[in-house]
Design brief:
By secondary structure, the chain is of the alpha/beta class. 31% of the residues lie in helices and 24% in strands. The radius of gyration is 24 Å and the shape is globular. The two termini are 38 Å apart. The chain binds adenosine-5'-monophosphate-propyl ester. It is an enzyme of class 6 (ligase).
Length: 650
């Protein structure tokens, strides 16, 4: 198999020097195997607790887990104050760089003060422990400050990626029941200010319960103002006391909600809690990246609006006292060497990003990274989608100079932290494979009936034991939590929704989603969500959406639509309108790459849309089995329509 995957069966052993001083060695697997709970308990001891737990895990009511039962801690204290108290107040927590090139440096002492002020401001606004606070922000330090301020006072943050639309924001605010929104006038993206406040204003016409909007001034764009509701961050936060005593909360106190796409149109509010979550994000960040707080400069090049940002820009790195780089903008602004320039400037030693970015760099060519000094790098990470061996090898060679282990980390919003990944000082790396369940994690590949498969087989990925940073439920919907993840193989087996292969050595290769969820540039988008957006447009009678493989973004969104009678001959303009409609409705990441207007959709006799066939069409393949199709002339019609009605890019 390794011969056919493009890496010619090459293995990359851990660099000797790294292995000799690695935070974790090979014994970690045996220790975790011998006593899983004792292993996680030891990981939890890396944090500061104000009250010890009575029980490591309560799994008496699966799938509802409780970790470190009875334990108490403050998450923000663990990320901030304790480092200052230990004499590291002057260490840089974040080197922040704005897209236009402006910079800010925040030490642990300064960040602690900022967070205390913001916590006091939220308290002044009446926010209490357990209340939800929506955060809709660009990548600026105040975003992180707002998250930690919530954590500090026990409020539950709900960050919505700044690229989402007003509609998406409104439905999340409603579902979470947020009382305050933190936003900014805008942020910089692709060389221009991009407004955020108007989307909040629009969203708040459709949802109730938000008392105040705190607005950070970033771009100085004009904003509309609702007196009594809207407040400038600098007016309210800057005048607060920098003192705030962190109160301890239960290990199971809710920390945040993060919405993610599922197989229905309604996104799921994934709930994470405090003690177990922080334990696993901190431990994995330390072990997977071999983080050395005194010498490393760490950079997760992702947006804080996704789980990767929560776990590996904010909570993991801060709990480990890392010095991190945060960058506001996109990789091509103002030039295509921007990221490499930042690596050189800050002497970044650990870089964590997504395969889609690496493939984009590949397209731009190796001359660009070759023009910068990248010798500070020592560990590289990948996340969000399968990394193909070619991209892995390119990353290893052209960014890592052939010296840096590449760790391909598989995990999900739901899992909160790394679940399957090599360890840089331990594993013989295989390009393209996530390889090994993290110590203390039980991941298996099973068949459709749930029987565990041996080596050299392909099936479904499941997790067969609870883990500390697991989601606790779907916000407000325990039944959906059970149905979605814990019904297919019983209440003690978590169904991840990913296909996986175990190779002859027992290494795990992730094969992508097995449900109706697309993965576009590492972002999860539900086919149903895009379909319901399309049918909400007056011109569309019916829609079917598939993820077609895409050389850069992993998958691209391809939609097939049947128009209503009155809209029949609207043509190319209408296709553009529909693409814009979806972009406005959900967000630019959900904008279909291609929309094909068709007369009919292929359906089974029971009326289910046959996406597999549509995917064949979208990927220009010979059609697969059509025997269950009601009328296979439908596919011929679709294929005939293809060249004339398709529309790409733009
Ligand atoms: O399909 C898997 C893919 O991304 C999904 C989780 O998406 P999300 O919750 O948005 O979290 C992304 C960041 C953790 C998974 O079900 N995925 C994530 N990492 C990998 C991956 N697929 C293959 N290899 C990975 N390393």
């Amino acid at each position: 198999m390794s011969e056919s995957n493009g890496s010619e069966g090459r293995r990359f052993p851990a660099p000797q020097e790294l292995a000799a001083s690695a935070n974790v060695g090979p014994d970690v697997y045996e220790r975790a195997e011998a006593d899983r709970l004792a292993f996680w308990e030891e990981a939890a001891r890396r944090l500061t607790w104000t009250q010890d737990w009575d029980q490591v895990l309560d799994w008496s009511n699966p799938p509802f887990a409780k970790w470190f039962v009875g334990g108490k801690l403050n998450v923000a204290y663990n990320c901030l104050d304790r480092h200052v108290e230990a004499g590291h107040g002057d260490q840089v927590a974040y080197h922040w760089e704005g897209e236009p090139g402006d910079t800010r440096t925040l030490t642990y002492a300064q960040l602690t003060e900022e967070v205390c002020k913001a916590a006091n401001a939220l308290i002044e606004l009446g926010v209490q422990a357990g209340d939800r606070v929506a955060i809709y922000m660009p990548m600026i330090p105040e975003t992180i400050v707002a998250m930690l301020a919530c954590a500090r006072i026990g409020a539950v943050h709900m960050v919505v990626f700044g690229g989402f639309s007003a509609d998406a924001l409104a439905s999340r605010i409603t579902d979470a029941g947020a009382v305050v929104v933190v936003t900014a006038d805008g942020g910089y993206r692709r060389g221009a200010p991009s407004a955020l406040k108007p989307a909040v204003d629009d969203a708040l016409t459709r949802t109730e319960g938000v008392r105040n909007v705190l607005v950070v001034k970033r771009t100085e764009q004009d904003v509309e103002w609702t007196e009594g509701r809207d407040l400038w961050w600098h007016d309210v936060v800057d005048r607060q006391s920098p003192q705030h005593t962190a109160e301890s909360f239960d290990a199971e106190h809710p920390l945040y909600i993060m919405y993610t796409s599922g197989t229905t149109a309604k996104p799921k509010g994934i709930l994470h809690t405090s003690g177990g979550y922080l334990t696993q994000v901190a431990y994995t960040h330390w072990a997977t990246f071999d983080l050395k707080p005194d010498s490393d400069v760490y950079w997760t090049a992702a947006d804080v609006g996704w789980v990767t940002g929560h776990s590996y820009i904010v909570y993991g790195p801060l709990a480990n006292r890392a010095t991190s780089v945060v960058y506001e903008g996109t990789p091509e602004t103002p030039h295509r060497g921007r990221w490499f320039e930042l690596i050189e400037k800050y002497r970044v030693s650990i870089l964590y990003t997504a395969p889609t970015v690496i493939r984009t760099f590949m397209k731009w060519g190796e001359d660009i990274p070759a023009g910068f000094d990248l010798t500070s790098l020592r560990v590289l990470g990948s996340v969000g989608e399968p990394i193909n061996p070619e991209a892995w090898l390119w990353y290893h060679q052209n960014i890592g100079g052939g010296r840096c282990p590449v760790v391909d980390t598989w995990w999900q919003t739901e899992t909160g932290a790394h679940m399957i990944t090599p360890l840089p000082g331990v594993t013989d790396l295989k390009p393209g494979s996530a390889q090994t369940p993290f110590p203390g994690i039980s991941a298996k590949v099973v068949d459709d009936e749930g029987n565990e498969l041996g080596d050299d087989s392909t099936g479904l990925l499941v997790l067969t034991a609870p883990w500390p940073s697991m989601l606790r439920t779907i916000w407000g919907d325990d039944d959906r939590y059970v149905d979605t993840y814990w019904s297919r193989f019983g209440k003690e087996v978590y169904f991840a929704g990913d296909g996986a292969k175990k190779d002859a050595d027992g290494d795990v290769w992730l094969l992508g989603r097995v449900d109706d969820v697309m993965n576009v540039s590492g972002h999860r988008i539900s086919t149903t969500e895009v379909e319901s957006s399309l049918v909400a447009h007056p011109a569309v009678a019916e829609a079917a959406v598939v993820g077609a493989s895409d050389p850069t973004t992993g998958q691209g969104i391809v939609a097939f639509v049947i128009l209503r009678g009155s809209a029949q001959d609207s043509g190319e303009d209408l296709v553009q309108q529909l693409r814009t409609h979806v972009s406005k409705d959900i967000g630019p990441i959900a904008k279909p790459r291609q929309i094909m207007v068709v007369q009919e959709l292929p359906k089974t006799r029971s009326g289910k849309i046959m996406r597999r066939l549509l995917r064949d069409v979208a990927e220009n393949r010979e059609l697969g089995d059509v025997t269950t199709l009601t009328d296979d002339s439908v596919m011929n019609l679709i294929k005939e329509k293809l060249p004339a009605s398709s529309s790409s890019e733009g």
